[in-house]
Structure formats: C-alpha cells, structure tokens
Amino acid sequence: MLVSLRWxxxxxxxxxxxxxxxxxxxxxxxxxxxxxxxxxxxxxxxxHILTFSPHPDxxxxxxxxxxxxxxxxxxxxxxxxxxxxxxxxxxSLPGATLASGLKIKKSKLRGVTxxxxxCSAVECGLTDTSPGVWVLPENAPIGNDFIEYAELIxxxxxxxxxxxxxxxxxxxxxxxxxxxxxxxxxxSSLNTFLEKPTSNTSLTCNIETKSCSYYRAQKIxxxxxxQSPIAWQTRLYYTGQRPISWLIDITNIVxxxxxxxxxxxxxxxxxxxxxxxxxxxxxxxLLNEKAYVLNSSMxxxxxxxxxxxxxxxxxxxxxxxxxxxxxxxxxxxxxxxxIIRKTSKQLGLRSESSSRFEKGVDVxxxxxxxxxxxxxxxxxxxNISLESPVDAGELSVKSIHIPFDxxxxxxxxxxxxxxxxxxxxxxxxxFNVSGTEIEVPSWRVDDCCEWPDIAEEMCRFSGIDGIKSxxxxxxxxxxxxxxxxxxxxxxQQAITLGLTEVIPFPxxxxxxxxxxxxxxxxxxxxxxxxxxxxxxxxxxxxxxxSSRHPMPCRIFNCGPIWDDALNESWQFSAxxxxxxxxxPYLKSDHDPVDFYDVKGLFEQLMSQSDLSFEYKVGGSxxxxxxxxxxxxxxxxMVGSIGVIHPNMKTKYRLPETAIIEFNxxxxxxxxxSSTYDLVSKYPATFRDTTYIMDSSxxxxxxxxxxxxxxxxxxxxxxLCGYFNKDQSSEVNVSFRMTYQDxxxxxxxxxxxxxxxxxxxxxxxxxxxxxx
Amino acid sequence: xxxxxxxxxxxxxxxxxxxxxxxxxxxxxxxxxxFGKKGKISEVMKHIRSASNEEKPLVGKKMNxxxxxxxxxxxxxxxxxxxxxxTAKLMNExxxxxxxxxxxxxxxxxxxxxxxxELVDICESLGFSxxxxxxxxxxxxxxxxxxxxxxxxxxxxxxxxYLAENKVLRTHTSSVQIRxxxxxxxxxxxxxxxxxFRSDQDRTHSPMFHQLExxxxxxxxxxxELKFILEQILKEFFDDDFPIRYRSSYFPFTExxxxxxxxxxxTGEWMEVLGAGMVHRNVLRAVDLxxxxxxxxxxGLGIDRLxxxxxxxxxxxxxxxxxxRFLKQGx
Lengths: 771, 331
What we know:
The complex is a heterodimer.
Chain A: E1 2-4, H1 5-8, H2 17-26, E2 31-37, E3 42-55, E4 58-67, E5 74-78, E6 88-97, E7 107-109, E8 112-114, E9 117-118, H3 146-149, E10 154-159, H4 171-181, E11 204-207, E12 212-221, H5 230-238, H6 246-258, E13 262-266, E14 272-277, E15 283-285, E16 291-293, E17 299-303, E18 306-310, E19 314-315, E20 328-335, H7 337-347, H8 352-357, H9 366-380, E21 385-386, E22 390-393, E23 400-403, H10 406-413, H11 419-426, E24 432-434, E25 437-440, H12 451-462, H13 482-496, E26 500-501, E27 507-508, E28 529-530, H14 535-548, E29 554-562, E30 568-577, H15 595-605, E31 614-617, E32 623-633, E33 636-644, H16 646-651, E34 657-663, E35 685-694, H17 699-709, E36 714-723, E37 730-739, H18 748-765, E38 768-769
Parallel strand pairs in A: 11-14, 26-29
Antiparallel strand pairs in A: 1-10, 2-10, 3-4, 3-6, 4-5, 6-9, 7-8, 12-20, 12-21, 12-22, 13-20, 14-17, 15-16, 17-18, 18-19, 23-25, 24-25, 27-28, 29-30, 30-34, 31-32, 32-33, 33-34, 35-37, 35-38, 36-37
Helix pairs in contact in A: 6-9, 10-12, 17-18
Chain B: H1 3-17, H2 24-35, H3 40-45, H4 55-92, H5 111-125, E1 129-130, E2 136-138, H6 139-142, E3 162-163, E4 167-169, H7 174-183, E5 188-197, E6 208-218, H8 223-238, E7 244-251, E8 254-263, E9 270-279, H9 281-286, E10 295-302, H10 303-311, H11 318-321, H12 324-327
Parallel strand pairs in B: 1-5
Antiparallel strand pairs in B: 2-4, 3-4, 5-6, 6-10, 7-8, 8-9, 9-10
Helix pairs in contact in B: 1-4, 2-4, 5-8, 5-10
C-alpha cells in the first residue's frame, strides 16, 4: 500500500520520517520502498494563458503569452493541443528542473523565443503518461509556486500490509499504529464526522445474496462535477490512483483515509438497487473498459434490473459518474471477504476496493466514511441536498472481550509490563483495558481473539530484540528417524565413493509411466508430472552437463518418487561416466565405465548391509538388456544396475554411462555389524581350484553351489582367476578357498580331503571339468 | 727380514695405497691384495712359526693394529662408495613430481544438503529430533490444522501446486508439526527438514526449495526460550557474531509471530533468515491438545536462503541446474 507521509501526518504524529520507517518495519509493517517525491523539482509557477498566436514557421506550434504574476507576461512556444486561452497551467521557467531531471533553458523554437515550458503531470513526476498539459482550476493563484500549491514535495512509502491487518489498509488505520508506536494518547479523532440531516427518499434497496450482509445507498443531489483540487490529485497520483473527477476522486480519497470502499453511481432515473448473484456466462464491461464473464458465485449490483457493478470489485460503465452527473447514489456495503477474494481471483482483477474487502472491512467505520464524503463534498459545494439513506440487511458489530492475566502474559513473553504499560499501548489502538478483561475494537475482531494476540500487540511495539533469551531446561527424549539416518548414511557413503550429489526437481515433463499423477496448475511444462523414478532426472542432468562441458559425471541423488496412486517412497540413484581415477599419464585408466563399475559401486554402497542380493539379467527401458541386472532381495525387486541403453545414449547425447537405482524402503533395516569375532590364532591354509566351464555357466551359479556346500573349516571363497580365451565356448575360472580352524592347526591331509570333496561338488552339478 | 718388519713394510705400503681406489671394485681388490686369503698379510703370517717368542706378541699386536687401522677404513670406504653408487642410480629413477597425484575423485554433497546437515547437527545438539512427513499433503495438514481455513486471505501467501483428490505438494514443512503432534505426546522437540513447493520462479524463488521446521511443545513454553534456540542456531551456522533483528510479522499458525534478520558484515545489509513464533492456540486445538495445558514455539528456516547467504550465492537457480562445475566447488 502506497502511503503519502504528508497525508498520513494529518492523522497522527511522528518524530521524523527515517525513524518512522525503521519503526514500521519493526512492528510488522514492512516498508518495501521509500520515494522522495518532488525532491528534484524547482522553479515551476502557476501561469495564466493570456493569448495564443500561431507560429509563423510551424503549423504545429503556437506562441502563448502567459501571465506569471510579474509585470510583463512571458512568451512560451508550445506544441500542446489541450490548452486554450484563459487556462491556468503549471509553467516551468528557465532554470527549472523537472522530474526527469531535464533542465529548462531559454531557447528558440524555429526562430521564436520560448521562455519556459507548460507542464503535464508527467513533468511534475506524478505519473508516466498524461493526455497533455495539466490544466488547473480557475481559482489557482497566478504566479504562485506550483510545487507548493500542488503539494508535490512528499515522501511516499510502500507499506506491506499483512493478511491479518485489513484494518490498517487506510490512513486512519496506519495512524492508529503510529500513535501507539509513539504513545500518542488519542483514539483518533477521525471517527467523529457527523452525518448531516437528510430529506426523504424514493429509492428502494434489496439484498438477494448471502455474500452481502449490509448495503446502504444514499442519494445526494445538487452536484456539479468538476476536477478535484490539485493537491488532492497529487495525493491520488502518489498513492497509485488516477484522478478522474471530483465525485469519483472523493470516494477514492475517503476509501484511502478510512479503508471503507465506496462507490458512486449516477443517480438519474435510478429507483431500485438489488444486490444479487450473477448468472453464469453473463457479460459485463467494467470501468477499466474491459469485458468480464460472470458466474453464479459472483455478487452483482443491479440498478433498475441491469448490472451496474461487480460487488466489491469494480463498477460497470452503465450508471457510471460522468462530467455531466448532478446527482449520485453513494454505495457503502459489507461484502463477505471470502467471496470477494474468490471473485477477484476468478476475474483476475484486483482493485483497491476488492483488496480491502477481502481482508475484512471495519463494520463500525462505514457511517463515518459516508459522513466524510458528505463533508468533503460540502467543502466545495455547500448547498448539496441529501436524501435519507436506504439500508438493507443488518450491520452487526461483533464484540470480543478477552480475559486477560498480566502475569501469564509477562511470563510467556519474558517481559515485565505493568498494567499501565498495557493500557498506554493499547488505548491508541482502540482497545479498552479494564483490569482482567480487554475489549477488542470492531476493526480488530477477526485478528484478536485470545490473550496471545494481546501479547503480540505488546511485544510488537516494545520490540522483541530487548527480550532476554533463556535456555530450555526440560530434557526431551531423542527419537530416531530410520529413513533420515539411512538417507544420511547413503549420502555420506556415496560421496566417499567419488559421487557428487545433485538435487533435481522431482517433477518432470513426461515420465516413463504415462499414468503418473500431474500437477493441476503447473507453471512450466517441465514441472508437470510427479516422477516415478530417479534415473530420468539423472540422465537429464548428465545430458545438460555434457552439453556444457566435457567432464564426465559421477552423480547421485536420494530423493522422493511416487507411484500412480500418489504413494511416496525414496529412491537412491547414481550415474557414472568416465573413470574414477583418470589421469592422462596413467596407462590403465582410459577404459569407459562398464557394468562391473556400477555393480562394484552398488556392492560398496551396500557393504554395511547384511542383506543378500540376487542379480537377474536385464532391467527397465533405460538399460542395455544384456549388461544390466535387476536386484532382488528375498525374490522382491529392490533396484537395478547397468549400462544405459544405446538409444538413451543417443537421445541425451551421452558418453558411455552406467546407472544404479534402488528403493530405500527395502533397506530400512540396514545394520552395521554390531559384534566382532576374534581372529583365529592358528594359521590359515589356501587351496586353489580351477574349473573349465561351458560358457553358458555363470560364475554366480558356481558360487551358489560353493556357498551351499561350503564345509565348516572353509572360511572364505574368492574368485582369483577368470579367463575366456578368444571368446571361446569355454571359460577358465579359478577360486581360492581359505581353510582355518579356531582351535587347532590343520593337518595337510585333512585339508586336502575336505578341499577335494568340496571342489568336486561343482563338477557333479554343472557342465564343467577340472583342467 | 723379520715378520714384524715385513708387517711394518705392509703398513707403509697400505698407507700409501689406501687412498688410490676410486671405485668399490678397486677397494675390494685392494682389500683382497692385502687382507685376502692369499693376500700379502696372509703370506707373511704363514711364517709366524719362525718368529721368536719375544717377537710373537709384537706380531699379534701389529696384526691387530693393521686390521683396526686399515680394515675398518676399507670397509667404510666400500660402504661409502656403495651408497654413492645407489644414490647415483636413484637419481636416474627421478620422476616428474609436479604431475597430479593418482587418486579417486572426491565426491561431495550438494550445497543445500551441506547447509541442511549443518543445521540439523546444530539442532540435534540442542536436543531436537529429526521428524519427517510426506511431500504430498492433504488440505488438513498443509492448511486447515495450521489455522489456515479455506477462505483465509493468507492462503494467497502460498502459491500452491494442486494435485487431484484434493491433495497439494506441501507448501511448507509446517505440515510435519501437525503429523507429529497427532502421533506423539508432549513434550515434543522436533525439527523437520525437507522439500517444499510453491508456484513461483525467479532469481530468488524456486518452485521447489528446502525448509527446516522446528517445533517445541511442553506444558509451559516461553518466548525467551524460542529466542535462545534461534540465536544459538544462527550463531553456530554463520560462525560469526553479527547483529540480529527481530521484526513482528504474521503467520496463521503462530501468535505472536516474527521474522528474524541478520546483518552481514560483508554487505552491511539486513537479510531475512527465518520466521518464528509461539504456536497458535488453534493449531493446538486442531491436534486435540488443550491450549490451556500446552504451549509451544515453532520456527521455519529457508535452507536454500541460508545456503545462499553462507556460500555467497546470489541466484537460487544454479542449485537446481546441477552443473557439476558449480557443485564441485564446495570443499
């Protein structure tokens, strides 16, 4: 909300502007920007155009003689079209500085001397666009300083109003805060405007929708519309409004002052006003000259049966006030905040009015707002006549009394406020403090309902900085979070294995599963679908990297994935390229990654686990079907590893790439071995066995047999040789068995016997032989 | 010539020749010539029997003198020359020690994860336990229980991503507060780090970012206790004694509510780092806790924002582009 401090000062007292801005920030009214308006302007006066004569050498230029209150008029050459003889206008004289920084000099335009320039609102720094020179009211005093006359010197701040503080969306509301801030003991004398006596009316008014609880229409006649006083126009410009005409400007000014949105209709021929619900598909053109389509949840103001406004949002062009208007109907109403918020959202139209209604408008302030309008009208035109207002609905003022315990609050806040402190602070805000009870003013009833709300009011102003901090004494039992710990353990393990963590969005454009859930209101196509796997994100990340630089990726992510029923689980995925310890001078490290690199990586990641894994050849669409494996635990698929499919390599322009993915939910029981066995004091002996196998036999098959037939004294079986000469149909595989006893030295013969029997067990079961 | 005289001659000869050999082999040859089995000394000593009884002890003494005097010298010389040979050989094996070392590449955590772990460590040391909740949330846990009814204007503060079945991508980790309070007894002291989503995207806003929620519930909880925790966290995390500023603010689920700014010495600017407050009584009611018998505080840190401040990153977007050249800078 833009606030003119010059205007605000009419409603409250504050020490200096910088202090005020600092303090507003502290008490919950963040000042987002500060502008020193009019600061650069100089040497602009009010001039009176005496005569115009054509320029001898230019069709578009005219020569004006302008009275600026000095003995002789000055001559100005102008291209402006909207000014006439007799108009009063702002004139910048030689030496003047304008809002753009432009300096005015005496000059010649096509040979004719020009001693200044007529100014528009743009040159005065009020707006970005303007229809032409600013024509001033007839009573503007010739020769006076225009900067002073138009009140151009001002500080305008942009204050962020929090959603619970609709009451502060006005000068009066903000003034209450400022008065409380500096302990100015007044409840604001602004609520004392008097409503003037009235004559009878023939107007009728009905509410036919739940979204309006109260509607008041009052006919005012005997008006002559005109342009608003210049200083008012300046204030409107500075607070983001555009001055339109006196009658409309007044409703805006009073809204800015009181926070009560008001609307003026042209009253000619108006008999009935109905507040109704819109019809689906109904069209309406509003004052901003744009057409909107209504629906049945939007409240509408009908005048004589035709739509004249979308309630609480904006008036329509029919029944709008024009320069010819002589009588108006002044509308003030209470519309339901939620409905206005919804309507304005649906229309994509947020007006000053709707932004106030949607945060809640003070029910008790309405009559004052009307009185203020009347007061402002009468300043210029004292002889207006007022009809008695027509009311529909009820104006129900909610009242809240909060039981209050000073000691409880002080303990809660760590403060030592006295009851007097509370009274002094809250009184300017409109609260009524009486010992054990606090009465909340009508404009705060939605926001202040319980004692912590009062506590907030107190510490808000006195400042939280000053409150002493205090350690917590209670010891609360620590609770372990297995998933968090598992994720942390895997992340740490992954980085020690040379992987770099990436964090991709868990949303994607399209997923391999076409039924993945989608976001209903995406902001970009890339962030539409919840991902079903972690691989795609990593491949895309690798693709982005390889499009930018030649460094191989070794990356991982542990993040959420979802199935098509919105069930969430955590997936660990890793992608590797290149060699882990590549240096150009080393001979052996140029080989691209292959299946065994990722398998090794997986085994290392799982080295803490007691689970036993089974590998089945083949994986999902991402993988090379012959160089990938599905990982099973107890016959349940937990993940896959492998080299990516050549199609994927091509699609994402990747070098040789291998990936791992597995679902964390299966590994929640990963345990680190919690017992240590003593090492045998007796020597171990080793025996090697070589099998010549048919190439259809897998090493895993041999190991399965060896593991199941393993004699007690055999403490380890390891692969120590693998040789497949020229891709022949036979493979030589050697294993080294370790034999050791905990209690004795082993006799050579015993070991030989055991080993012989053990080695033979494979020959019996698989197509293989000894060499 | 008596044996003793012969030995004396050998002594003199050795004295003259001892410094002649230049190589190990020459020294060994010299040793052989004098001390070898067929060497000059052995030749002389063959005749020891012919020595007189008076002479014998003197010969023995002389022999010993020769050995002590020359043999140690020769052996020393042999070992010196051997060492010199080895040194020369090793110098031939000299390699380029400026080549980079052979090593496994270092991996690293994402800067956001680093910040997250650091914050979690700090909070755990302050007695908070890590809690978690689902990313896809229902309206109750994400909004209603947090005192954000459907019609409340503060729903506009959350640019929510909606899913089917009245579900949303959680807009804050505050939803974990609700889930935890529903399942656990007071006292409660938890933090909930995690991903959150808002439909907003620019230099300082990402549609997905990370928050860390804190919640403490007990029968009596005070603002000074909240201040203590927040000050500890910020001090530890930034490892710096900088000014902290509290600004009153509004969150539907806390009352009073405030935001905390930190003034960075590098820029001299106040930067907002967290929001906090005392748990709203309506939130306690929503999880069936009696607000007259329970109080609490809650705080929410933007992990991305804190990481940006700590690591001097001015744009949030590189966090999620995942260019490894950016990510690998961290040490």
